[in-house]
Amino acid sequence: MDDGKGITEAFWSQQVSDDAKMLWRVGSRGITFLAALLLPKTGLKVLDISVAVLTALIPLLVIETHRAYSKFSPGFLAAVIRICVNGTGVAVACLGLLIYIGVVVPVVSAIGSVFFLDVLRSFNGQGVGPLEQVFFSVFAMAILLALVIAVLRNFRELNILELVYRLPRAQVEWVMTQRPMRASNWGMFVWFELCVLIASFVYTLTVSKAAVLLVEGFRQVLALFQVSV
Q: What is the pLDDT along the chain (229 residues), one digit of tens a residue?
């Protein structure tokens, strides 16, 4: 029978002293802050800040919610769970899309870069008439459109959305609503909260590296076209 309590609520409220609570809070926050400092940065402030805020907020909500699950009002609890579920879904989906794009974009750019460079040179070249320029432009757009369609079709056939959005979202919802375990000792308590923090750190590290590689890849592609960023 469901007791209505969070995974760590009974242990946190009954068996952990106030001194230990303060030490654990400071220690866990310190680890999170240190990890954030060690993560690679993309150089894009909006992206870096968004990743940092999202990956700090979700673990905090998950941990604090399970420490006092039964004390929250139903409306507030439902709102917190909704934020955790939707936030995780968006975060993991962004990570999956970054990795997918990071794999696909280099392939697409490798296929099209030589041709598009020739097209650009044709625009800037000497002795190229308007008709030839129109022909090359239309042909380039057709190739680009075909590549985009191929990428979208591959995305749908591989069912990427199910893997990077629906499945993680369902798992977080299961943990937040079903609460499949109860921490009864320090080992289980530390295991659960560290798993949340480690998962957040691994996600942040992966998305940061993927974003850095993606940004660098775009810069290299743009450099081929002599576009400064």
A: 567 888 999 999 999 999 999 999 898 888 877 776 776 666 667 777 777 777 778 888 889 899 999 899 889 988 988 888 887 777 777 767 766 666 666 666 666 555 555 555 555 555 556 666 677 667 667 767 777 777 777 667 767 667 767 777 888 888 888 888 899 899 999 999 988 888 877 777 776 776 676 667 666 656 655 544 4
Cα separation of the two ends of the chain: 59
Locate the domains of the chain by residue range: 9-104+169-224
What are the b/e assignments for 11-49, b being 16+ CB within 10 Å?
A: bbeeebeeeeeeebeeebeeebeebbeebeebeeeebbe
Widest pairwise Cα distance in the chain: 84
**Model-level pTM?**
0.69
Length of the chain: 229
**By C-alpha distance, which of 190, 201, 174 is closest to 8?**
190
